[in-house]
Amino acid sequence: MQNGRCLPVAQADGLTVTELAAAYWRFAKGYYQKDGRSTNVTPGIKIALRFLRGLYGHTPAAEFGPLAFKAVRQAMVDDGQSRNYVNDNCKHIRRMFKWATGEQLVPASVTQSLSVVPGLKKGRTEARETAPVVAVDDATVETTLPCLPDVVGDMVQLQRLTGCRPAEVCIVRPMDVDTSGDVWEYRPESHKTEHHGRERVIFIGPQGQDVLRPYLLRPSESYCFSPAESEKKRRATQHENRTTPLAHGPARLRFGHIQPLDVVSSGSEVSRHGFLQNRLIGLRFRE
User: Fold this and answer.
1) What is the pTM assigned to this prediction?
2) DSSP calls for the chain
3) Does residue 265 sit in the same domain as residue 176?
4) Which of 123, 136, 150, 173 is the most buried (most CB within 10 A)?
5) What is the pLDDT, as a whole number, of residue 239?
6) Does a structural domain hold residue 129?
7) How many domains does the structure of the chain reveal?
């Protein structure tokens, strides 16, 4: 059972739902990974298995059928999950039993019986509906851009002009961009559907090229958009726009504008630590 290994077939007899869920969870943690990190599939599996184990944990896995499956689904609905979320969680449970059949842990009849249970239909269930996810309107983007650091703003502009995913903007490198044609071609080193064997090509037109061009002037294997560079630039701009003199506020401590302790009135019994704290929060000492 260690390192994702499955139960021997001889031990499958009498296997409970909890034991099956534990074996599948070990498999799923190793299978649903990308670049050494768990994908967003595993949290959904964990939630689905929690409901399954809570109702039928001690039930033999071979005896889990459509009625039990519907009871688990109803528990998710009663918990307030949306219709789409319930359907996704039920798919995780189906996949678990399908995997178990392939490992000869449960009979194929169990998997087949679960497949005949349909998903919840819109308007025909008490499960709540969620609002569709829509694109951010142009007015909101235009209002937000001036408030963003330059690097982040350019990332937003590039995504807006190319339609690429947020993760694809974050990992663009000069070596991934073919600039030989009038329309540039960006092939991300990693993308959402690469496990299906698909190639991902993002086309960058003249406006996008104007945004990206300055960031290509770096080592070919370096990422074009660096959070460290963005923060450094933001701090530099903030420092240039500073209106409070350096001799005031917390900067006094950093630049040595703190009076020595011997100038504090002898009547004020303050520790060095307390003195610095009071100076930092702007308190004045009374003589």
Assistant:
1) 0.67
2) -GGGPPPPGGG-TT-BHHHHHHHHHHHHHHHSEETTEE-THHHHHHHHHHHHHHHHTTSBGGG--HHHHHHHHHHHHHTT-BHHHHHHHHHHHHHHHHHHHHTTSS-HHHHHHHHTSPPPPTTSSSSBP-PPP-PPPHHHHHHHGGGS-HHHHHHHHHHHHH---HHHHHT--GGGEE-SSSSEEE--SS-TTGGGT----EEE-HHHHHHHGGGGSS-TTS-SS-HHHHHHHHHHHHHHT--S-TTSTTHHHHTT----GGGS-TT----HHHHHHHHHTT-----
3) no
4) 173
5) 80
6) no
7) 3
Residue 237 in any domain: the answer is no
Model confidence pLDDT, tens digit, residues 6-46: 544 434 678 999 999 999 999 999 999 887 788 889 999 99
Classify residue 69 as exposed, middle or buried by CB count within 10 Å of its CB (0-12, 13-18, 19+): buried
The average confidence (pLDDT) of the chain is: 84
Structure tokens at 179: 């600039």
Q: Does 38 share its domain with 89?
A: yes
Q: Are residues 177 and 218 in the same domain?
A: yes
In this prediction, residue 156 carries a pLDDT of: 94
Same domain, 99 and 35: yes
- 60 and 111 share one domain: yes
